[in-house]
Every structure is written in structure tokens, then in C-alpha cells.
Amino acid sequence: DTGVSQNPRHKITKRGQNVTFRCDPISEHNRLYWYRQTLGQGPEFLTYFQNEAQLEKSRLLSDRFSAERPKGSFSTLEIQRTEQGDSAMYLCASSFSRYEQYFGPGTRLTVT
Amino acid sequence: TQLLEQSPQFLSIQEGENLTVYCNSSSVFSSLQWYRQEPGEGPVLLVTVVTGGEVKKLKRLTFQFGDARKDSSLHITAAQTGDTGLYLCAGWANAGKSTFGDGTTLTVKP
Hints:
The complex is a heterodimer. By secondary structure, chain A is mainly β.
């Protein structure tokens, strides 16, 4: 399967801990996106990379969130000092064309 | 802030019925996508529309982009239980950022 993959699929952590998620995009895709989705809502844009450059970041993203895409391949999203409000599905998507994006299965984060 | 409003929020129909769901905005989008999402999974891309007035058909699904590129609709003919899911629209104003609606949850009963 050559789709977008995300690891882990599920993460349970205690409040205050740091967590890191990984996304492996479709190999020929140069654009990579991170979204957050809570129950009953659509995905909410967090950040966007073109190759290794982080070109846009949502104002909703606090200083506790950081994303990287070294070498323009896989990406990681780190959340420091997690809070209960961080509980959500974190979605990664990649694209080659200007607008279409293909999503991974997501990482479900639960902060207790 | 560009907002996409989807309606209805919930729709429950019998198998074989037709339905239409809507995606509306006051903003103009360069393109708009429709996705279907199942619980615990990521959204799956159904279609991209780019040109105002464009109509695309995908088997029993018909997608239309408004002339002013501010709204879109998805029509399903003879719904099947496998069509059950969350239908999301997403609009792009530039290459970097898309805006999603909150979706229409469709339940097709046998």
C-alpha cells in the first residue's frame, strides 16, 4: 500500500507529557499538511510544508506545538506539555497537485 | 476567516432514496473538494471541482460547483447503505491552506 501512513494510530498520555506523531506521505508528494479534528467537526488546518519548508502555520497552533519535515520526506508533529483540550484526531495529508490532498488514517490522541 | 457551512448537519434516509447535501460560503474558492469519512479513519477524496458551474459525475454521485465558486452541492441517486458516512467539503483559496466544513452525517438505512 503506497498511501499516507501515520503512527501511532492511537496514543493515550497523561496531562503534561510530551507526545510525537509521525506521518509518511505518498512518496512523490512534495506537499504535506497537518490537521486536527474533534468530534462533530471538520478537520482544522494546523500547518503546511512544501518539501522541507514550513510555509504556513495556523494561529490556532500554540507554542506547545511544533512540526518538522526534515529532508522533505516524513514529518513529525510534537505536542509539549499536553492538555486535555489537545485530545483529538490528528490527521496528516499529502499532495502533489496544487489542491488535491490524500489523508492518512489519523492518530487518535487521548489526554487523561 | 473563510467559512464553509454544510447542510443539513444530519440526514437519515432509506436505501433507494435520493438526496442532496450543500456546502455554502460567502468567500470565493479557487477549487473545492468533497470527501467521505468513516468513523476512526481519515477523509477519502471523492472529487475536485475547479471551474464555476462545473458538474462532475462519479457513478451515482453528482457534484456541482456554483457559478460564483462560492458554493457546491453533492447529489446521490438511489442511496445505498455503503454510502453511510460523513461528507465533508473543503475549499482552497490558495495553495497552502484549505478550509473544511463541519460535514453532513449521512445514514442510509436498509
